[in-house]
Amino acid sequence: MQSTLAEFQETQSEQPFALQNSKLLKVSLDKVTIQAKAGAMVAYQGDVSFEHAGSGGLGRMMKKAMSGEGTTLMKMDGTGEVFLADAAQDVHLIYLENDAITVNGSNLLAFDSGIDWDIKRVEGVSGMMGGGLFNTALQGTGWVAIISDGPPVLLNTGDAPTFADPQAAITWASSLQTGIKTDIKLKNLIGRGSGESVQMSFSGQGWVLVQPSEGRVQPMSAGSGGGGLLSQLGG
After folding, report:
1. Which end of the chain, N or C, is surrounded by fewer C-beta atoms within 10 Å?
2. Distance (Å, whole) CA 100 – CA 141
3. In whole angstroms, what separates CA 218 from the centre of its chain?
4. Contact, 166 vs 132, CB < 8 A?
5. Within 13 Å, how many C-alpha atoms sit on residue 93's CB side?
6. How far apart (Å, rounded) are the C-alpha atoms in residues 24 and 6?
7. What is the rounded distance in angstroms from the CA atom of residue 48 to the CA atom of residue 29?
8. pLDDT tens, 56-102?
9. 107 and 142 in contact (C-beta within 8 Å)?
C-alpha cells in the first residue's frame, strides 16, 4: 500500500512525556503514573487503567466547593502508552525540578502524579467578582503538560510591569506576586470595552505565558456554579 501517512508514525522517546506533534501528547506509563484532564485521552496501547483521581483531601474538596468550578482529573497508570489532547490545542511541556508554577486550571492537560497541587486564589479579588479568580499551584519534580489556544508568548516579568487578561494568562512562575488591576471608567462600560477593565498583574523576577485567546468556551455542567473565571482542579 502506498500512502502519505509515513510522517504520522508514532514518535520514539526515552522521556515519559513526549510530543507526538504540536497538538498531541504521548505518555509512556511504564515510566510514570499521571493525572490528566478527564476526557483528554484520545488513544492508548497496552495495559492501561483509568481511575477517577478525586480531590486529594478534604481541604482541596472544600476549596473546589467554595470556588464553584473544577477540572475533573483521571489517574492513568499501567505498562502502555496513552495519547492525550484537548480540542487540538497546542501542547507544551515543562519539567519541574523541585520547583513551582501556577496554571490556569482549564489549560492543564496532565502532570506526573508525584507532583503536589493545590487551588490558589488571586489576591485582591474577593468580593469584587463572583467567586474570584482561582488557579492551580503545582510543586515538586516531574513533567507538566499544558495547552494553549494558539501559539503563546513568554513574557519576562522582570523587564517591565506586566498585565494580562485573566483568561489569557495560562501559566507563570509561582514566585511572582499576582494581583488585579481595574480600570472601571464609563468608556469601558460601553459596548465591548468592559472586557478589558480587569487585568491580572504580575510582579517580581520570573515569567508568564500568555495565549493569543481568552480561552475556549467550556460547557457548564448541570448544577455547577459559575463563580470563578478560571477553572481549577478538584474531584
Report:
1. N
2. 9
3. 13
4. no
5. 18
6. 17
7. 8
8. 544 444 444 443 345 688 999 999 999 999 999 999 999 999 999 99
9. no
